[in-house]
């Protein structure tokens, strides 16, 4: 075999290897096999990271749909201080309050508001629930159950049905003022997990 043919074979093998590696990385770093869902109204911290509006976010910028943790909130679920990351250390940036540095969605207290999800892979669903922080909550500390009103502002049961890829729920926001957080919980019926999204609000 000539040197030229050996070079061509080596080049072809390297091209094939590079293609295989690229495909594997795509699957591992946010491909549809691992995709689930995120809130895009109000825009969640995870989505703000993907958009580049929030920076220094770590891996969540590539997979805002993957904030998945144990279900059962508020009696179970993620640990206090790790609610926004759903106990996932790789998404720990979501738990950092950044001294109020997260972008906030502007909302009006006492008005109706439509919460929207983008589901990149739907599941049989128990329900969607939405929680808000209490007046006077500690805005500089990582989110805990004690900061939240543990009676949801709204619950939308699905009875095991699979929702569409775009989900909308209209709620009535309480008459709050100042900065708050919305904690959105999508509980899955056929696994032990739920999906969690934290959104910063300015009333």
UniProtKB/TrEMBL annotation:
Keywords: Signal. InterPro entries: Cellulose/chitin-bd_N, GlcNAc_Chitin_IntDeg, Ig_E-set. Residues 1-35 form the signal peptide. It holds the Pfam family LPMO_10. The keyword Nucleotidyltransferase does not apply. Residues 36-201 form the Chitin-binding type-4 domain. PANTHER family: CHITIN-BINDING TYPE-4 DOMAIN-CONTAINING PROTEIN, GLCNAC-BINDING PROTEIN A. This is Chitin-binding protein.
């Amino acid at each position: 075999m000539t040197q030229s043919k050996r070079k061509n074979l080596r080049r072809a093998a390297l091209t094939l290897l590079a293609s295989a590696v690229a495909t594997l990385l795509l699957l591992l770093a946010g491909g549809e096999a691992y995709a689930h869902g995120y809130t895009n109204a109000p825009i969640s911290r995870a989505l703000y990271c993907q958009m580049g509006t929030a920076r220094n976010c770590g891996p969540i910028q590539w997979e805002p749909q993957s904030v998945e943790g144990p279900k059962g909130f508020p009696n179970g679920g993620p640990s206090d201080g790790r609610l926004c990351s759903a106990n996932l250390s790789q998404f720990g940036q979501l738990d950092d309050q950044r001294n109020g540095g997260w972008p906030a969605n502007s909302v009006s207290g006492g008005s109706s508001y439509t919460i929207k999800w983008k589901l990149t892979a739907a599941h049989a669903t128990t329900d969607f629930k939405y929680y808000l922080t209490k007046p006077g909550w500690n805005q500089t500390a990582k989110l805990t159950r004690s900061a939240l009103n543990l009676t949801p502002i709204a619950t939308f049961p699905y009875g095991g049905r699979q929702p569409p890829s775009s989900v909308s729920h209209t709620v009535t926001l309480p008459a709050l003022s100042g900065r708050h957080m919305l904690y959105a919980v999508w509980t899955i019926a056929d696994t032990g997990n739920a999906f969690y999204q934290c959104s910063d609000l300015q009333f």
